[in-house]
Amino acid sequence: MRYKNFVLFLAACLSLHAISNSCYAQDGVKPSSKTTTAAFEDAVKEYMKLRSEIKAKLPKLSKDSTPKQINSYMTSFEEQMRAARPNAKQGDMFRPEVSEFIRTTIREHFKGLDRKELRKTALEAENQGVILRVNYPYPESKEFTEMPATLLLKLPQLPKEIKYRFVRSNMLLVDRENNMIIDYMLKALP
Fold it and tell me: Is 155 part of any domain?
């Protein structure tokens, strides 16, 4: 009787394992990774909600806006975002589990020559001297390192207003419109 119960228990465990593996295989994301990416995406949604509220209060720019008006708008947008997030700090969105997920994703999907090429591209960019500082703009005079499309497909999806960027081996979240550094993680590239 014990043997029969053990065999039934073992069969049930193997069935559950097979089911969980088939779920993982369908979309390529482990259940724990889904929780991690969902938390990250929720934090991004909160930022977007705040961003939308602030932007709605700003005066609208016309098609005929002068460079001075555009600069004033951008400065106001940046200052109001900074004031609305006075306690923003590194790691608010790139929490440890998110950072580890991203590092693992890069490590698993960029191997050998692909990884060397990715590191070379990120490290050769003209972005030396960029100070990584949450709530402050990415310097306009510095180059942005484009993210490979194959990597973007593996990372948590972002709304069109936000982009991932590399500065040396670090990864940033940057607001496309005001160039504000929303968050960053250190040593994203293996």
Answer: yes
